[in-house]
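Dear H.,

Thanks for agreeing to be a second pair of eyes. The structure we're designing against is below in token form, covering all 321 positions.
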């Protein structure tokens, strides 16, 4: 058995430390094995799903890898992109759980160079200067990269703590999701390259620039989107679902069926909630659940065994650690 075949069969199990706020890696050109999104050959199709890893780890943990695998399995006719702000080394590329993800023919990895990626956009100044003084640079980067990506190529954006249950094919071309009666989420959304999607991403990016506050955790992610939509469709703010000038707003039950208040039940020994309708995704609420071990009889573990079997099988008892 060749060395590469060995790592594909049994990749390294890496226990990642908590990501810190240092984003110097964004500007590093060293030890990177991934193609750049600026390469001429990087041409995402209209049916593309994007994940962003904006820490400086240069890899993903088991929970993040599970999210990517679940999207690839549920949407085999979509291209699934895992985009890194940090360089990813050749060792990480060849020997970590990334090799399991790359066994799916629709999974792609690429590197974003934040400075060049944001060039000539309204948020270029934030990327070049303001990020370094931010209290939450990794989170702010995710919000900005998500919107720049959708503006450039169109597609679906997913957070790395979302589990995908079924295909997105029967949904509309442009949509967002409520997480409650009053709040929109950024964990999953689709904005296309059509007029509706382009106008929205342009307006949201401008809103991010105009309201950027380096001290606030979520002031310009979901909140920026909410302000834009409230100006467009003020009556939609209190509705559970609806339409806003060509943008579909879906109810939380289809994408966030287990709410924030019950987040801990996902990782503890607990029966999975019986739902009236099978959702498209589950949100794992990483901000609240990341400090807990995933119980093998928890809803999360049971879903992972079905939705990301390669990653779950690779990690076994170490899944979610």
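And this is the sequence the design step returned. I haven't edited it by hand at all.
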């Amino acid at each position: 058995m060749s060395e590469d075949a060995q790592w594909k069969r049994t990749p390294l199990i890496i226990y990642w430390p908590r990501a810190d706020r240092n984003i110097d890696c964004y500007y590093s050109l060293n030890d990177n094995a991934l193609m750049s999104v600026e390469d001429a050959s990087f041409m995402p199709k209209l049916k593309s799903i994007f994940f962003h890893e904006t820490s400086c780890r240069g890899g993903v943990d088991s929970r993040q890898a599970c999210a990517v695998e679940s999207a690839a399995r549920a949407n085999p006719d979509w291209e699934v992109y895992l985009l890194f702000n940090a360089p990813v080394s050749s060792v990480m590329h060849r020997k970590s759980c990334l090799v399991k993800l790359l066994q799916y023919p629709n999974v792609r990895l690429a590197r974003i160079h934040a400075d060049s990626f944001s060039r000539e956009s309204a948020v270029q100044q934030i990327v070049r200067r303001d990020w370094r003084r931010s209290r939450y640079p990794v989170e702010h980067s995710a919000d900005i990269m998500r919107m720049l990506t959708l503006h450039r190529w169109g597609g679906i954006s997913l957070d790395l703590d979302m589990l995908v249950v079924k295909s997105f094919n029967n949904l509309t071309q442009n949509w967002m999701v409520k997480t409650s009666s009053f709040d929109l989420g950024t964990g999953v959304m689709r904005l296309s390259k059509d007029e509706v999607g382009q106008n929205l991403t342009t307006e949201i990016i401008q809103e991010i620039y105009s309201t950027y506050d380096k001290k606030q955790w979520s002031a310009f992610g979901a909140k920026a989107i909410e302000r834009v939509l409230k100006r467009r469709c003020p009556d939609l703010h209190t509705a559970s679902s609806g339409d806003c000038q060509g943008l579909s707003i879906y109810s939380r039950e289809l994408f966030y069926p287990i709410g924030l208040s019950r987040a801990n039940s996902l990782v503890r020994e607990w029966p999975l909630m019986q739902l009236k309708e099978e959702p498209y995704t589950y949100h794992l609420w990483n901000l609240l659940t990341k400090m807990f071990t995933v119980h093998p009889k928890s809803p999360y573990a049971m879903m992972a065994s079905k939705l990301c079997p390669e990653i779950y099988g690779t990690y076994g008892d170490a899944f979610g650690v």
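Two observations from my side: DSSP finds twelve helices and ten strands in the chain. The mean pLDDT is 92.

Warmly,
E.
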